[in-house]
């Protein structure tokens, strides 16, 4: 596999989790953010005849976000990438600097007959990340790791806003949700070596500590949508 380009912030993060793994590997129970059981959205996209729809979400390092959605029933593709900034800055080296406006994001293509947009948001808030953390997740800090939803239409934006208000009103989390809703943004796919990273690198300490527990949380908290075999980018490309 092509090595990850050097970057000070990610290097420090990886070093930190390597040290942590060496000190407390057997006793580290869950990802740093943990997981929450939260109510389903009161407002959701009504059932339709469409066979495919798309959502774009950002919840920290895209390795884990992609991995969780790849293990979600009804998802037909989960692609790591960047959203929020300009096309010319949509590459890992620049985005990692934290000044491009981009967030590490995942484009989720799904079958709305099997899973709804609101259900994806429920997984996003409950399993994937801590939506009360501003510009950080786990060991990663910076605006590129912000919690954000990139609606592709007005309906998605309205559902996301209503769900955040619902969760805040219900005090689903100890602090207010800071997730940003950023409409009108374009998604740009990340480099090939970032795709399917969780599946290809399960022994990477960063993945083992921060991301694999999220897969277990998905299985534990929402078992009805968990699938053991992930839908991989490599598999989709090879079938074309």
Strand arrangement, largest sheet? 7-6-1-3-2-8
Can you tell me the number of structural domains? 1
User: What level of helicity do the residues show?
Assistant: 25-40%
Query: Strand-residue fraction?
Result: 15-25%
Structural class: alpha+beta
First-to-last CA distance? 22 Å
Rg calculated over all Cα atoms: 17 Å
CATH architectural grouping: 2-Layer Sandwich
**CATH classification class:** Alpha Beta
Q: What descriptors fit this protein?
A:
disordered N terminus; Peptide Methionine Sulfoxide Reductase, Chain A; 8 helices; two-stranded antiparallel ribbon; single chain; 240 residues; alpha+beta; 35% helix
Please give a structural write-up:
Helix 2 (62-70) runs parallel beside helix 7 (205-221). 43% of the residues are buried. The protein contains eight helices and eight strands, in the order H-E-H-E-H-E-H-E-E-E-H-E-E-H-H-H. The chain has one domain (48-238): Peptide Methionine Sulfoxide Reductase, Chain A. The longest helix is centred in the N-terminal third of the chain and has 17 residues, at 8-24. Helices cover 35% and strands 15% of the residues. The protein has a six-stranded mixed β-sheet. It has 240 residues and is of the alpha+beta class. Mean pLDDT is 88; it is low at 1-32.
Describe the structure concisely for a colleague.
35% of the residues lie in helices and 15% in strands.
């Amino acid at each position: 596999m092509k090595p990850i380009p050097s970057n000070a912030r990610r290097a420090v993060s990886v070093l930190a989790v390597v040290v942590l793994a060496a000190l407390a590997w057997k006793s580290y129970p869950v990802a740093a953010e943990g997981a929450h059981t939260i109510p389903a959205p009161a407002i959701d996209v009504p059932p339709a005849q469409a066979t495919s729809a798309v959502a774009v979400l950002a919840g920290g390092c895209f390795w884990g976000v992609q991995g969780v959605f790849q293990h979600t029933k009804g998802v037909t593709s989960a692609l790591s990438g960047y959203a929020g900034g300009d096309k010319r800055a949509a590459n890992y080296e620049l985005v990692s600097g934290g000044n491009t406006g981009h967030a590490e994001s995942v484009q989720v293509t799904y079958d709305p007959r099997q899973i709804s947009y609101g259900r994806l948001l429920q997984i996003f808030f409950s399993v994937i990340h801590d939506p009360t953390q501003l510009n950080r997740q786990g060991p990663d800090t910076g605006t590129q790791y912000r919690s954000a939803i990139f609606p592709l239409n007005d309906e998605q934006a309205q559902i996301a806003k209503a769900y955040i208000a619902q969760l805040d009103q219900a005090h689903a989390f100890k602090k207010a949700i800071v997730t940003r809703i950023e409409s009108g943004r374009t998604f740009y796919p990340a480099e090939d070596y970032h795709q399917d990273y969780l599946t290809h690198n399960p022994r990477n300490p960063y993945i083992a500590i921060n991301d694999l527990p999220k897969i277990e949380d998905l299985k534990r908290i929402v078992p009805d949508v968990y699938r053991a075999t992930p839908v991989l980018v490599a598999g989709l490309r090879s079938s074309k």
